[in-house]
């Protein structure tokens, strides 16, 4: 029985390099900025966590001025028969729920204090073509709550078999109608993150 565990591989030495594009906007303070960079995510080592579970340290690195990879932060991940969990910046998230089945839904933030983020599987087993790579079999994790005119919260992650996450799009944008000098003006505040895999492998 295929439970979809290979959508979230954890082999030590496996890695994915991403092109990252990040934007943040605050019309109230006239801030509009963006940054683009390469990010290398590598499964560094296996260990046993405090709950006695098999776990893995994940090193995230960016390039310095000389083009060398420099560790940026360390995340941890663990995979059980029912879930793939990732602790990022001390926030534990339920990234995938097993078995991988179309329509299966869960709350990514069930293990932390952040607002609920309800997601579900879509497009199971579909190919995905990105700018620099193609993947014959992927699954989409997408938020299930539609945006409204005030709060636009969008979340998508594509996972490829035997690779892991290969694409991410997340946006959290608040839109308000305010009065400025007697005129109604739209003001936006929030951020957007895009990630695309450009290469992957196993050392």
Protein described:
By secondary structure, this protein is mostly beta strands. It has no helices and twelve strands. Strand 4 (69-79) and strand 5 form a beta hairpin. The radius of gyration is 19 Å and the shape is globular. 19% of the residues are buried.
Keywords:
single chain, 203 residues, mainly beta, twelve-stranded antiparallel sheet, globular
The helix/strand order is EEEEEEEEEEEE
Number of strands: 12
- Spans of at least 5 consecutive residues whose pLDDT stays below 50 are none
Proportion in β-strands? over 45%
Overall shape: globular
Q: Which bin fits the share of residues in helices?
A: under 10%
Q: What does the main sheet amount to?
A: 12 strands, antiparallel
Give a concise summary.
The protein is 0% helix and 67% strand. It has no helices and twelve strands. It has strands at 14-26, 31-48, 54-63, 69-79, 83-88, 91-97, 105-107, 118-129, 134-143, 151-160, 164-180, 183-202.
Describe how the helices and strands are arranged.
Elements: E1 14-26, E2 31-48, E3 54-63, E4 69-79, E5 83-88, E6 91-97, E7 105-107, E8 118-129, E9 134-143, E10 151-160, E11 164-180, E12 183-202
Antiparallel strand pairs: 1-2, 1-12, 2-3, 3-4, 4-5, 5-6, 7-8, 8-9, 9-10, 10-11, 11-12
């Amino acid at each position: 029985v295929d439970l979809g565990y290979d959508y979230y591989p954890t082999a030590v030495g496996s890695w994915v390099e991403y092109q990252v594009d990040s934007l943040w906007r605050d019309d109230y303070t006239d801030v509009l900025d963006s940054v683009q960079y390469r990010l290398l995510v590598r499964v560094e080592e296996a260990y046993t966590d405090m709950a006695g579970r098999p776990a893995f340290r994940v090193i995230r690195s960016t390039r310095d001025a000389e083009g060398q990879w420099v560790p940026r932060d360390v995340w941890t991940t663990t995979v059980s028969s029912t879930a793939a969990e990732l602790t990022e910046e001390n926030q534990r998230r339920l990234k995938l729920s097993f078995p991988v089945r179309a329509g299966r839904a869960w709350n990514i933030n069930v293990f932390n204090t952040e607002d609920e983020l309800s997601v579900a599987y879509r497009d199971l087993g579909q190919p995905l073509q990105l700018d620099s790579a193609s993947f014959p079999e992927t699954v989409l994790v997408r938020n299930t709550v539609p945006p409204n005119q005030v709060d636009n919260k969008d979340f998508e992650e594509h996972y490829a078999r035997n690779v892991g996450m290969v694409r991410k799009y997340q946006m959290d944008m608040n839109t308000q109608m305010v009065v400025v000098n007697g005129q109604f003006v739209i003001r936006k505040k929030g951020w957007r993150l895009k990630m695309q895999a450009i290469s992957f492998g196993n050392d």
